[in-house]
Here is the input.
Amino acid sequence: MITKDELLQIIYKAVADFNSMQDVDEQLAQQANQVLFSRPGFTKEGLLDSMGLVNFLVTLDDWLDQQESAQSLHFDISDALENKEEALLTIDSLANYILLKNKKV
Amino acid sequence: MSIKNSHILILSDTNQSNFSSYLSKYIKDAKVVTTPFNQLMQVLINPTHAVWQQHYALIIFWANPKSLFPDLEKTLIGKHEMLHVKNFFLRLIDKAERVLFTGFENYPNGFYSQFENISSHNRYALNMMLTSISMESPGVVSYLPGYYSPVVKGLHAVSEDLWYLSKTAWHRTVTDRMASFVADMWKQWHGLSVKLIITDLDDTLWGGIVGDDGWEQLRLGGHDAVGESFSDTQQQLLIWKKRGILLAIASKNDEETALQAIDRHPEMKLRKADFSTWRINWEDKALNIQSIITELNIGAQHTLFMDDNPVERYRVAQAFPDMIVPNLPANKLEVPAFLRSLSCIPATGVLTNEDMHRAELYVAEQQRKNSMTAFSGIDEWIQSLNTVVSIEKLSHQNLTRAAQLLNKTNQMNLRTRRLSEDALWNWSQTPGQAFYTAHVHDKFGDAGLTGLIGVSIHDDELFVEDFVLSCRVMGRGIEETLMNFIISLMTEWQLSNVKVACLLTPKNKPCRDFFSRYLLSDSHEWVFDSKARFVVSGIQCNVIDFN
Here is the structure.
């Protein structure tokens, strides 16, 4: 089973790939505490709008498919979007969400 | 139409917000708008739709034709239906300066059940129809046949997730590449594409080090895979040269040895005469390149530098951030295909006579400059050139070149007005307005159509709308000759004065400086009466068509 640290490294690669197609002021940081999604009432601001979230998750899905250590991981983008307040708050919560879902599977 | 603040419309049946974002990223001058999702038909059939309140610099049609004509799947399209589809598309031409159709291809197998593929017959017929539209409106309509292959090749093209979650048809890598492709075309249309290629020699134009190996041992052509690829690289440069792009050499080599190789190697496709200039020495490459672009009077942003050495590429890219410095593949066999894929170099469009012969024109310009050193003053030099300026009214024969000059010239351009061919023609045919072209010839050769004048009558005054001169003939008394012609127009039409008002841009300082020099004033507006004369001698001015 992939470790959280290994998963974060893959997410960071996806972030770098994603950033290569983003404007300079819309780049995500390769940090666990990078906020992705703005929850109403939440103090920190996320960078991504709904289209940006979809694009980022599709990029991540491509990376998970390509990495041998992550190929057995199940990643359901639509489920992540449906649970975005839990799954997409930060990069750290995204990693936790993926690991948790796969533990249940 | 000014490039700045212009608008681009994407007509599509899918969510194109990614494509729109990328276009905005690459084309910063324009505002990009898209049709709302699933509203394509509603937009197209409603002439009062808000989308049509705006005239567009570019309309991009990137949609499945079935969303417009559902029957395309079932039946073979007939002549009547084809005419209907064609008229539908022709209507777009009235709404924009340019229209870009992406061509009709079948979607990848098994993709989106609602976009079932149309029959091969119908697809072929539709693409033929687009070809005919683009041929009937050259310069206005562009058609990208088979766009999937160049744009999508080697990419993961579609994403079911993207489709079901956002109704986006194409993966971001595809829309990114497509936007970059369109942006390159945009640059071509607005005269922002590559005009000069500076190339290295060793391991770039031929295999091996000529100074070490001798020209006889270079890998070039013959029954040798690497040699053949270098030969194809040269062939590609030759093709570009024929399209009017200048070639130059910047190489760290002994000049005599390198030129000997160019002249003597039997497999060389490029010869000395194909290069407008060269710097073959041991100096810093960036300094040599600066010297080349100064000599040829071409901006770094219009120059592409090719070198196999990543260190030299880095040096040049650092020295000239605007210059295009592609990372050539290390595998020499991949270089020719890589060069062919560079869309920053014009591949299509209408080439004028001047485009085709630009390289020769620059050689003549060089001879002209060399001759300057033999004279004590600029007046004496100008007189020695035996210049003839032929002025005539805008006609259908010179319209394409006139529009190109109007839209490309930045430096000696009074108001930097940009107009399409149609708009320029219509403007010139309006009563009280006239447009003239100037053709310049001297003892070194024909510089071609290099000057433009647009004037309009306001009450008792002749207003100069356009005063445009190619940088190729600047500073040779042509400016003065054209102004004297304008003053003679004022007299001929019995007006009392000529008004010149310069709209300043970051690039047209030479134009303002020319007028300021005459009136010793830093103003942006100048008024001349019938007594005004711009001093110039030794230039013959033939007015072929006054009225």
Remarks:
- Residues 15 and 29 of chain A are 8 Å apart (CA to CA).
- Helices of chain A lie at 4-19, 50-66, 77-82, 84-87, 91-104.
- Chain A has a mean pLDDT of 85.
- Chain A touches chain B at residues 21, 23, 50-51, 54-55, 57-59, 61-62, 77-78, 81 (CB under 8 Å).
